[in-house]
Amino acid sequence: NSVVLVTGGSGLVGKAIKYVVENGSGCKNEKWVFASSKDGDLTDRASTEAMFLKYKPTHVIHLAAKVGGLFGNLSANLEFLRKNLEINDNVLFMAHKTGVQHVVSCLSTCIFPDKTSYPINETMVHNGPPHDSNYGYSYAKRMIDILNRGYNREHGRNYTSIIPTNVFGPDDNFNVQEGHVLPGLIHKIYKAKEEGYDLKSNTSKPFTVWGTGKPRRQFIYSRDLARLIIWVLREYKETEPIILSVGEEDEVSIKEAAEQVAIAMEFKNGFIFDTEKSDGQYKKTADNAKLRKYLPDFKFTPFPIALKETCDWFVENYETARK
Ligand code: NAP
Ligand code: GDP
């Protein structure tokens, strides 16, 4: 029997895994534990050890991290670096010390080199400096791959990593200053709708998209990502990372994404761009050929449907959502 410990079990991706496990993907011989920071501070070695001794996992999905969107990263790169280095070293060391054979940790497509050729694949993680806007998060995440190789080479551990592209879904962080673009835009539209029609100026409020709207992103629905992570845990045996992303053909500009969010929120007052705000990395187009080789028939939820489910979730859970 397996005990799967999910660190970061209370976050966007952790909650999606919980949803998928509880809705049919659980196995009888697996006990799942979804841990949050209330179960222990993973930046602290003793607290991490206590968590491993308490739950005695046989498998770990390691998601816990200090996570933020472009503007969260820009304001606190050093903190992103230090916290994530501490969390990752503590989790992998304690997994090894307590005999966990299999760990799946989470990288991100934003850690890839900024100056590169496209599409980016799994062999290119360390090929050059990441985009300056999120250097702290990126270098800390890159070290997970180095740690995995060390635990594999020196101790025969099966510690691997996944590289998801931009994730969105229910339970995201909808805080506009700290979070990612889609939850930020959903929240901004919610507010613009609340403020509604302005009698004084005889206008309805548009919402504001930061930057020029030209950068391009691949978005993955958290519940699709959750299904893929469970597959990785059960079936993927390589130490090398694997990109978990929709195809290159599904990449959209921020402007197109804003249009789709407006449709999903049934918002008709349009949007404006604040070009004083940063665009961040122009693109980080990732190649999902390796994933497609393993799972040629995997079906991603169409972007408009996943967005609609996310917007509906936010409206229904407005009072308790992270914002
Ligand atoms: P999230 O919603 O911000 O959740 C972060 C999780 O980490 C929460 O469960 C949080 O616990 C936990 N955590 C943070 N600091 C901790 C600490 N010191 N000790 C213990 N737990 C701690 O993040 P997410 O979006 O689900 O991200 C999950 C993973 O996916 C991360 O590794 C992230 O780097 C990666 N990723 C995310 C994206 C994206 O677009 N969101 C894209 C690519 C990769 P509390 O709830 O108790 O605070
Ligand atoms: P990234 O993919 O790691 O860069 O992070 P984000 O999810 O924060 O996306 C950043 C991109 O979306 C940049 O081009 C921003 O200029 C643009 N953007 C537009 N509006 C927003 C917003 O309200 N919040 C965020 N975080 N980004 C926005």
Automatic annotation (TrEMBL):
Gene3D superfamilies the UniProt entry points to: NAD(P)-binding Rossmann-like Domain, UDP-galactose 4-epimerase, domain 1
Residue ranges constituting the NAD-dependent epimerase/dehydratase domain according to the UniProt record: 4-247
Documented EC number(s): 1.1.1.271
GO biological process: 'de novo' GDP-L-fucose biosynthetic process
InterPro entries per UniProt: Epimerase_deHydtase (IPR001509), GDP_fucose/colitose_synth (IPR028614), NAD(P)-bd_dom_sf (IPR036291)
Pfam families: Epimerase
Purpose: Catalyzes the two-step NADP-dependent conversion of GDP-4-dehydro-6-deoxy-D-mannose to GDP-fucose, involving an epimerase and a reductase reaction.
Pathway it works in: Nucleotide-sugar biosynthesis; GDP-L-fucose biosynthesis via de novo pathway; GDP-L-fucose from GDP-alpha-D-mannose: step 2/2
Homology family: Belongs to the NAD(P)-dependent epimerase/dehydratase family. Fucose synthase subfamily.
Protein name, UniProt field: GDP-L-fucose synthase
Keyword Cell membrane: no
HAMAP family recorded: GDP_fucose_synth
Superkingdom of origin organism: Eukaryota
Molecular function, one GO term: GDP-L-fucose synthase activity
